[in-house]
Specification:
By secondary structure, this protein is mostly helical. Helix content is 73%, strand content 0%. The termini are far apart.
């Protein structure tokens, strides 16, 4: 069951990478001559770091459910279905934010943030601006294709691992239950550490993505969903 979630987690990270490389290639940004391949690649490593934070946020609830269900003899199909529906709804939302970030970044040279909520009061106007601009069709179609493919892969993975777990023998005796409990604690601890994103007093912040003097590379590594949520939370602070 935990391998099922790990597989979905890996697929999500690959999709986040696809959106990041799409942003990198589509902007047409001209780098200074001193910016080489090594410096550029660091942005993608930073991106994997931030993408993993968002993926762990999404995974923590299904992981807790699976760990509890794993203590019983068999994991029912309904548990797999529930986790699949949850992941199939939440992950595509983050993919939509990543897709929307491509034209947003191209226009503002900044990752998508809480300013988009100011447009909610002008829904018809905003919708017209989006669907009347032909350059937005590519990220929209790209998102729809990826969302459908993600659902297809998600269901395939869920069916495969449910079939595997249904054939496994349940843990026997105190030793078996102790082993599953310890592995569950370890997995949840890793997931919580992934949410925190770093050691130290403070959890990961947007500033952790900055590593060079180039403004594009410093922003490329930030997950758009992370930036959107962080900016929204900052707006809610009284100070």
């Amino acid at each position: 069951s935990r391998l099922y979630l790990a597989s979905v987690h890996s697929v999500a990270l690959v999709i986040f990478f696809i959106f990041r490389i799409s942003l990198f290639l589509s902007i047409g940004y001209e780098f200074p001559e001193e910016i080489g391949f090594t410096t550029k690649s660091i942005a993608f490593i930073k991106g994997l770091w931030f993408d993993n934070v968002i993926a762990c946020y999404i995974m923590v609830i299904p992981l807790a459910i699976m760990c509890i269900a794993n203590q019983f003899k068999k994991i029912p199909k309904s548990i797999f279905n529930t986790c699949t529906i949850f992941l199939g709804i939440i992950f595509p939302i983050t993919f939509l934010v990543s897709a929307a970030n491509i034209p947003y970044f191209d226009y503002f040279f900044n990752n998508i943030n809480s300013s988009i909520f100011n447009w909610m009061g002008y829904g018809a106007t905003t919708g017209g601006m989006i669907f009347e601009e032909s350059s937005y069709y590519i990220p929209i179609i790209g998102f729809l294709i990826i969302a459908v493919l993600f659902w297809f892969v998600l269901i395939k993975i869920a069916n495969k691992f449910h079939s595997i777990t249904s054939r496994l023998f349940p843990p026997k005796g105190l030793k078996g239950y102790t082993f599953t409990t310890l592995t569950s604690i370890a997995c949840i601890s890793l997931c919580l550490f992934g949410i925190r994103g770093r050691t130290g007093y403070n959890p990961i912040k947007v500033s952790q993505a900055y590593y060079c003097q180039d403004p594009f590379l410093n922003q490329l590594g930030i997950n758009p969903t992370f930036n959107l949520l962080t900016s929204a939370l900052d707006d809610m602070r009284k100070e």
